[in-house]
Design a protein that fits this description.
Elements (H helix, E strand, L loop, with lengths): L1 H12 L1 H47 L5
Helix pairs in contact: 1-2
């Protein structure tokens, strides 16, 4: 919501830049999409490694520990 209000202010004060930002936003989103997917993949791998690392601790604690 804040981004929309900032864009409205930019539209009031400098409408050519606001229109350029409106047109360029989808292209920037498409360029950044592979990095977002890579971030999700790295997060998943790190979560898997964390689960494997803490597995012996969870096994030794027993079934009642949270």
């Amino acid at each position: 919501m804040a981004a929309f209000f900032l864009w409205c202010l930019l539209l009031i004060f400098c409408w050519p830049i606001a229109l350029l930002a409106l047109i360029a936003y989808p292209f920037v989103w498409l360029i950044l999409l592979p990095f977002r997917i890579l971030g999700i993949a790295v997060s998943g791998v790190l979560a898997l490694l964390r689960a494997l690392f803490f597995l012996p601790v969870r096994v030794l604690r027993g079934p009642h520990a949270v």
